[in-house]
Amino acid sequence: MAAAAAPVPVRELDDVTECPICAEGLTNARVLPCIHTFCLKCLKTYVGNAIPGEKKVCPLCRQHFAVPVGGLKKLPRNDFVEKVLKVKAMATRLSLSNEVACDVCKEEKTNKRAVVFCTDCNHNMCNECTKYHQKSKANTSHKLVSLDLDERHTAEELLQKLPEDHCHVHIQEPLELYCFECQVAICRRCYVKRHNSHKCSYVKTAARELNSHMQTDIDSLGNKEVEWAKMLAKITADEESFEVCASECERYINRRADHFKNMVDNYRAELMKKVAIAKRSQIHQTKVMKDEIERQSVVLKNFIKYMNELHKKGTECDIAKLANSLHTRASELCKLDVEKDLAIQYSTTDVNFVATANDEEIQRIFGQLDIEVSKGGRPLDCICTTQPNCHYCNYLLTV
């Protein structure tokens, strides 16, 4: 039987579950301090033979991180991404529900069709096995997902169906509390042993407060995204203006060259070569700058998308675990100055052709080409003496 369409929009989860290095689904996901997540094997390939304590940069945002003692495997797991990966697996299971057999009675070779999936036991079960499963007191808290194709499940619903997060120290204890001082979700036993003197609250209560802070960060990052877009638009406008002004210089040079063509062909070629070099240099510099801004914008958009996914679909524990690190990273991004903090210095080029009225010297008659590059995007004063109303110079003086 052909597989039916998945009842969960799996593609909506790809942005969160795709490794930026291998462009495939994350496996053994590890998260860096900047919140970017990668496959462990991809990170190992990326850092090479780095030793503990050695500084490396994130492949996406270039923020530095130290290789932890014990190697990259000691980097924290991204529990939220792991949950989303489980949801994708559940979505695939649901799309094949008519072909899934009961896992419990497989040994009897009855090939009974499964009707539910237990997220705690990780088993598909038929009607009969489901009844026995529900009779056990140990299974009363288990969450079941119907495999009926007529029932559509959203990603948020499936995330809520996953087993509750449990303490890494006390494996059987659920994470019910949040310690504001240590900024971690804890179980009751952890509270008694190590956190009873700290400010703590129920994780659901803390998640509501942290979720509010997260929304504020999302709004701030949205403003920063607009700021990046404005900077990119400015750079694009600079490029267009430079193209126009450089073209004007070229036309002016050609007009004068046509007048003295027989005498000054070689000299004109020399000047045009300088203009071309300056033009290529400026265009290349502008492209590098635009690429950097676009890369920063992609980093920002992906981070916002990740926060939105967590904000909308994460459980209280997910939010409690990640909110503070996300807030820290969001604050760092918001503090970035689009004109000062980029790794690449942007500059503009001033191209002017100076003509003289004296016919005694061929070179002086033809004119001199001055090319000056202003540092950091601050243009130099107009030095054009050939055209009193040079459009490019006027443009530079108004930037």
Strand numbers in spatial order across the main sheet: 6-5-7
What average pLDDT do the residues reach? 79
What series of H and E elements makes up the topology? HEEHEEHEEHEHEEHEHHHEHEH
- What is the molecular shape? elongated
Count of discrete alpha- or pi-helical segments spanning 4 or more residues: 11
Helix content: 40-55%
Main sheet overview: 3 strands, antiparallel
Radius of gyration: 31 Å
Q: Please report the distance between the alpha carbons of the first and last residues.
A: 67 Å
Structural class by helix and strand composition: mainly alpha
Low-confidence stretches: 1-10, 377-399
By DSSP, the count of extended strands is: 12
- Strand residue percentage: 5-15%
Summarize the structure.
This protein has 11 helices and 12 strands.
Can you describe what's shown?
- The chain has a domain at 235-398.
- The model is unreliable at 1-10 and 377-399 (pLDDT under 50).
- By secondary structure, the protein is mostly helical.
- The protein has 11 helices and 12 strands.
- It has helices spanning 14-17, 40-47, 79-95, 127-135, 155-161, 188-195, 203-259, 261-313, 316-335, 362-366, 391-398; strands at 29-31, 37-39, 55-57, 64-66, 116-118, 123-125, 144-146, 177-179, 184-186, 200-202, 348-354, 368-374.
- Helices cover 49% and strands 11% of the residues.
Give keywords.
399 residues; 3-stranded antiparallel β-sheet; elongated; disordered N terminus; disordered C terminus
Secondary-structure blueprint of this entry?
Elements: H1 14-17, E1 29-31, E2 37-39, H2 40-47, E3 55-57, E4 64-66, H3 79-95, E5 116-118, E6 123-125, H4 127-135, E7 144-146, H5 155-161, E8 177-179, E9 184-186, H6 188-195, E10 200-202, H7 203-259, H8 261-313, H9 316-335, E11 348-354, H10 362-366, E12 368-374, H11 391-398
